[in-house]
Recover the amino acids of this structure.
DNA sequence: ACGTAATACATCGTATCACGAAGTATTCTA
DNA sequence: TAGAATACTTCGTGATACGATGTATTACGT
């Protein structure tokens, strides 16, 4: 999929992946994989960014003697998803413009 | 509108704006404005990029004693629009993932 | 006549960001 | 016992939207 098209979707996909249940890096990648491909370096960059923006919080926890970083969505994170839904109307209007292609005569 | 979300749409919007009829910078901005905002610096950067990629060709023409650069879509440009339509299925599947948010239990 | 907006195009620098490459370390499995 | 899977991290790079700024002409209001 076109990298530019992905840009506006990745953040929201990550937030969606932790929306119902706290999750961790490796699992997030596997969960979103059916919908969108994401490399590890991309994911961890995004997680860092979302943390700095206050859209999620992090908690380190031990699991089978291995450390895992669990990510938890914040209210601002949930808001971000809602904003995305709002913006989708604009996106669809652009899509309509493109498929019709009747910009001028 | 979110700048990241715009990224995958701008190129295709510009191509759509010249699809039916050759057009020029200033007019393109006004034509796509109802759907998506685009600054001049952005537009001319895009036009340059699309030209270098062979998605459009340029022809300079005089209009009222002023030079205008008319942009004409190529076959590759039309293909680009078709590819976009194909990719839209993936985009919609991602959108569904986000609005449902039922990634795990 | 004069200033301001509109038309029309161009360049530069900056900040953001996805990703490949490479690295560290543990656990599971053939 | 080697390799795959799990789990996280850092670095460098290329792509790119945009504000700021500049140039030049035409149209319009007063």
């Amino acid at each position: 999929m076109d990298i530019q098209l992905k840009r506006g979707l990745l953040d929201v996909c990550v937030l969606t992946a932790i929306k119902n249940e706290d999750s961790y890096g490796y699992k997030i990648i596997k969960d979103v994989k059916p919908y969108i491909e994401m490399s590890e370096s991309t994911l961890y960059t995004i997680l860092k960014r979302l943390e700095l923006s206050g859209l999620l919080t992090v908690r380190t926890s031990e699991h089978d003697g291995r450390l895992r970083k669990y990510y938890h969505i914040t209210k601002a994170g949930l808001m971000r998803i809602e904003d995305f839904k709002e913006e989708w109307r604009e996106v669809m209007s652009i899509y309509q413009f493109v498929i019709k292609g009747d910009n001028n005569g």
Summary: Residues 3-4, 7, 24-26, 40-41, 44, 48, 64, 66-69 of chain B lie near DNA strand C (CB under 10 Å from a C1').
